[in-house]
Specification:
The protein has 37 helices and 38 strands. It has 1084 residues and is of the alpha/beta class. Helix 20 links the parallel strand 19 and strand 20. Helix 5 crosses helix 6.
Length: 1084
């Protein structure tokens, strides 16, 4: 059936900011949908509040609304744009829930908007636990025994009926939010309460536990003519009980019999037909009892999901692209396979390789977080690796995850002292944690056998036997030493061993292994992902490396290196806190802009969720680990023909920067700012000399390697001090320290974590305003791309602070001086491309405010996408061309301050997923993503940014306030403004006396330590609508911890800085004055 012509315009709902459970895989699917449907000639209207995604670039849609994704805001866009159809399946749970709300409220019917991609009926049937269960019974499939509960009483009845342990799954939520596994009554009570609260329809499914069963997923696509294909099967190495997003997975499924696979395939197709998904991709999850083969259906997603991105990258089948075309009437047989260019999309993909996905976690960022993995997702990113065998693929994945692994590194098992007591090993194996797979390998080293390990962890014996073989090979390497012939070394490399791992086992320099490999000509071959296991020729250079035996059997290398002029772009690897999608955005723009200039662009990356690893983003894609060995091998291969102009290492965050030194040593050209200048900015002593020479200020500081040296420096510069290890990203392990005892404790723990790297100590500038500046430069000139004023005071990591362009309170003279200093630095560091500088401005109310430089990064920063959207300049693309040798003066750049809009960026945090963790912000970054608010005044822009991250400012109600002494005088005008709007105020003793003395009406309330009823009771009873709470000193921070957690649970806007409280007040005043308006970025 050809495409529909009765539809002219389509509204696509994006996924909003990156959060745990809904990451950049929806940036990938949404971008694909916009691109394809626009190519098909439809007018595309997009709503997405995320500035970091390439999807919200103005060229991806005809009208791009960077607005909060709420039913009210989408309704305003519908009234304004009058779309014919709405596509809700490309923006994760956010888009589905919003579309359902609009359909059920009658908005879509009223404005004649048709839901495409999935019907309301299908969404309900798949997402509503009770309806889904009935549908499964109807087609003869079994689901785990379960009861739907809408309140605590019904939940207790279900508990009696089913018995513990239990799995609790909230309806219509994301990444298992609010759910979990209950082994006892206490856990049951707490998970049921959080689950009912997390579910938008306030219901949870209470289900029998099938923990320990094997878990599988099927990625399925169906069209209107009932053509159904399985894109791929995915097997979780971890058994049931762990959220599939947190499990290590492989594709295709490896331990199913053909009979079981066919059963699962038939069930998947029957489910899609029954649910009524007829235009697009769906994901179906199954569990199989390893004892008797009983199969149950866990759930299905009637939309493109996290696994769809993985399945797309694993097979080369672009699920989102195909689903977008199906949604407008095409059938699978009418769509051509991009990779082979000969077969239709109805041709089921076949894999002749193994794909491994390993999740990346960030528990180290959240003190007090429990690292046990459950049915609620906690990972912040993932990596994927491809090999010809499971062992090759798995060891490549381990070194891709960037947690300092070269393979199955040795690991200390907690509590294990001697061989006579093996219980700590069994304990480590039976608790699912991110390290468990390494404990499995360690258990083999300690003499455990497959059965003993299986009994503890329930990982399938086939996987265990594969790991055991790797450990046996390690032992033989240790005994026999470095192999001196081709066959032995080739065999070891074909099992996925990196040069580093071999060197580690033999305690030698990895360079020795590398030179032996070169001497014996043990080299990787590059194969193509072709979606058909070599049956048809692949026209798309989507490549992976393998050491599969090649000279005897004559297997070919499929790289087909070209004679063109080429530039290699190194990506950012797996998403993590501090290095997210913003860097991928920069890499994608580099590929687009350099390809347009005639260069062959070559992308190296290993993140399956992102746009950079799409086979049509760059001219060639290597899906490979970003390690020195893997990258140098690719460069050597590409260097064999054509002209390599150079590598871009400044766009992928810290990951490629770590490789800059070894690339330089191997005489590989690096384009843009030189690695020496990048190092100068990181090297505290060299940087200090430069600032002295330029007569620029820096906070008093020092550098040390031990607690002794640290104490001397702190005494000299004065407390509080800001301390951190060097060469890290995202403020990793950065802390503000107030006394000597804490400083000694900190230094000792850091030395064990980060080893030899020097530790940096600065005088902490309290009450300063932090400012972020992005600069673009070539050899001759530099221009300020944007100046952002942070809303939180200095001391909160720049990635966690809300910020605004143009600055909200800085005097014009200060802005001019910041511009001048920025250009001076760009010239001194010979910047070619992008640079980010962080300033702190102190004594702003005085005639001559003091400007300090906190740090300089001569590379792309995480603020670049936000600055691009705020100013209308595509800096990442322009800078890539400047790095390749073009002049900056050739580009028309709009001045950053001449804008008719205010842009506010706000961070989004995962605290809800980590019970027991304090939500107080500090110098270590904790946010997973960001949203943007755009409006014509600051109040409205700030209110929109808050809304976009799920914090709804009240127009009236009750303010609770408790502030430190130095802030009391400054909160008076805020309190007065809110009282004038009709708010009532409650406050703790000290603050209430102060407000009363200043003639403001206030009611006193107890602190938690002062007896009940206290403040937390009032929050739980819904008597508080907004909180301003600033603290100082450890005691006061500890005391207010329960208050912060209660506010988080009750979804109450909570501001812990004076500047944040001030911004919120301004936004509330603005909301009371005017309704929020929507405006596309193209119309500013």
């Amino acid at each position: 059936m050809p495409k529909r012509n009765d539809i002219k315009s389509i509204l696509i709902i994006g996924a909003g900011p990156i959060v745990i459970g809904q990451a950049c895989e929806f940036d990938y699917s949404g971008s694909q949908a916009c691109k394809i449907l626009k190519e098909e000639g439809y007018r595309i209207i997009l709503i997405n509040s995320n500035p970091a995604t390439i999807m919200t670039d103005p060229d991806f849609a005809d009208a791009t609304y960077i607005e909060p994704i709420t039913p009210e805001m989408v309704k305003k866009i519908i009234i304004k744009e009058k779309p014919d159809a709405l596509l809700p399946t490309m923006g994760g749970q956010t888009a589905l829930n919003t579309a359902m709300d609009l359909a059920e409220s009658g908005t879509l019917k009223k404005y004649n908007v048709e839901l495409i991609g999935a019907s309301l009926n299908a969404i309900k049937k798949a997402e509503d636990r009770e309806l889904f269960k009935s549908a499964m019974i109807k087609i003869g499939l079994i689901t785990p025994k379960g009861v739907l509960a809408e309140n605590k009483k019904e939940a207790d009845e279900a508990l009696k009926e089913i018995g513990l342990p239990l799995i609790i799954r909230p309806s219509f939520t994301l990444g298992g939010t609010g759910g979990g596994i209950a082994y006892n009554k206490d856990e049951f009570d707490s998970i049921v309460t959080s689950g009912i609260d997390a579910s938008p329809v306030n219901s949870v499914l209470i289900e029998e536990s099938i923990i320990g069963w094997k878990e599988y997923e099927m990625e399925v696509v169906r069209d209107k003519s009932d053509n159904v294909i399985i894109i791929c099967s995915i097997e979780n190495i971890d058994p049931m009980g762990i959220h599939t997003g947190d499990s290590i997975t492989v594709a295709p499924a490896l331990t199913l019999t053909d009979k079981e696979y066919q059963m699962m395939r038939n069930a998947s197709i029957a489910i899609l037909r029954e649910i009524g998904v007829e235009t697009g991709g769906s994901n179906v999850q199954f569990a199989i009892n390893p004892d008797d083969g009983r199969m149950v259906v866990i759930e299905m997603n009637p939309r493109v999901s996290r696994s769809s991105a993985l399945a797309s990258k694993a097979t080369g089948f672009p699920i989102a692209k195909v689903a977008a075309r199906l949604s407008v009437g095409y059938t699978l047989d009418e769509i051509k396979n991009d990779i082979t260019k000969t077969t239709p999309a109805s041709f089921e993909p076949t894999l002749d390789y193994i794909v491994t996905k390993i999740p990346r976690f960030a528990f180290e960022k959240f003190k007090g977080a429990e690292n046990t993995l459950t049915s609620a997702m906690k990972s912040v990113g993932e990596t994927m690796a491809i090999g010809r065998t499971f062992q090759e693929s798995f060891q490549k994945a381990l070194r891709s995850i960037e947690t300092d692994l070269d393979g199955f590194n040795n690991i200390k098992i907690p509590g294990y002292k001697n061989e006579s007591d093996k219980t700590p090993i069994a304990a480590a194996l039976s608790r699912p944690t991110p390290e468990r797979i390494l404990y499995v390998a360690q258990a083999f080293r300690e003499g455990f056998n497959i059965k003993e390990i299986f009994d503890c962890c329930k990982i399938d014996p086939w996987f265990l036997s594969q790991i055991e073989e790797i450990i046996n090979i390690e032992s033989s390497i240790k005994i026999s030493g470095l192999p001196n012939n081709y066959d032995q070394l080739q065999f070891i490399k074909s099992k996925g061993f990196s040069d580093n791992r071999i060197a580690n086992l033999l305690e030698i320099d990895p360079k020795i292994v590398r030179s032996l490999r070169n001497k014996l000509i043990v080299k990787p071959n590059y194969k193509r992902i072709d979606s058909c296991a070599g049956e048809f020729n692949s026209k798309t250079p989507y490549l992976y490396s393998t050491y599969e035996e090649n000279n005897k059997n004559g297997f070919s290398d499929e790289s087909e290196v070209s004679n063109r002029k080429k530039i290699i772009i190194l990506g950012g690897g797996p998403n993590r806190i501090g290095q997210g999608i913003e860097f991928d955005y920069c890499c994608v723009h580099a590929a687009y802009s350099l390809s347009s200039q005639g260069y062959e662009t070559i992308m190296i990356n290993c993140n399956p969720e992102t746009v950079s690893t799409d086979y049509d983003t760059s001219d060639r894609l290597y899906f490979e680990p970003l390690t020195e060995e893997d990258v140098l091998e690719i460069i050597e291969k590409e260097n064999s023909k054509g002209l390599l102009k150079g590598c871009i290492v400044q766009y992928g965050g810290q990951t490629p920067l770590k490789l800059a030194k070894s690339l330089s040593e191997s005489n590989i050209p690096i384009i843009g700012t030189s690695p020496d200048m990048i190092d100068l900015a990181e090297d505290r002593e060299r940087f200090q000399k430069l600032l002295k020479k330029l007569k620029l200020k820096q906070p008093p500081n020092g550098i040390c390697h031990s607690a002794n040296e640290a104490v001397k420096i702190a005494v000299k510069i004065g407390y509080p001090v800001l301390v951190r290890p060097s060469y890290v990203l995202g403020g990793r392990a950065m802390e503000i320290i107030h006394n000597e005892e804490s400083l000694i404790q900190y230094i000792n723990s850091i030395v064990t974590l980060f080893g030899k790297n020097p530790i940096l100590i600065d005088r902490f500038l309290s009450d300063a305003i932090e400012v972020d500046v992005d600069v673009i430069a070539d050899k001759n000139i530099s221009k300020v791309a944007g100046i952002m004023e942070h809303i939180e005071e200095a001391g909160v990591h720049s990635g966690d602070s809300a910020c605004t362009i143009p600055p909200h309170s800085l005097p014009k003279k200060t802005i001019k001086e910041i511009e001048k200093q920025s250009n001076t630095l760009a010239k001194a560091l010979k910047v070619i491309g992008l640079m980010n500088i962080q300033f702190a401005v102190k004594d702003i109310e005085q005639k001559e405010p003091k400007i300090y430089i906190l740090e300089v990064n001569p590379r792309a920063s995480r603020t670049i996408p936000f600055v691009a959207k705020a100013t209308g300049n595509q800096f990442a693309g322009i800078a890539a061309r400047v790095m390749s040798g073009e002049k900056l003066s050739n580009f028309k750049i709009l001045p950053w301050h001449k804008t008719d809009k205010i842009s506010v960026k706000e961070a989004v945090f995962p605290f809800g997923r980590f019970p027991g963790v304090d939500t107080l912000l500090g110098p270590e970054m904790k946010s997973t993503g960001e949203a943007m608010g755009l409006a014509e005044n600051f109040g409205q822009a700030f209110a929109k940014a808050q809304m976009a991250v799920g914090s709804y400012l009240p127009k009236k109600g009750t303010l609770f306030i408790s502030v430190k002494d130095s802030d009391k005088i400054k909160v008076l005008p805020l309190c007065k403004s809110l009282l004038d709007l009709g708010f009532s105020i409650i406050a703790t003793k000290g603050t209430s006396i102060y407000l009363e003395n200043n003639n403001l009406k206030v009611k006193k309330i107890n602190k938690v330590s002062e007896g009940r009823p206290h403040l937390v009771d009032a929050i739980k009873d819904g008597l508080v609508n907004i909180i301003f709470n600033t603290t100082e000193g450890e005691q006061s921070i500890k005391e207010s911890f329960s208050l912060r957690r209660a506010a988080l649970s009750a979804h109450i806007p909570y501001y812990t800085t004076l500047a944040g409280s001030k911004a919120a007040t301004e936004a509330i005043i603005s909301l009371n004055k005017d309704d929020l308006k929507v405006k596309s970025i193209q119309s500013y």
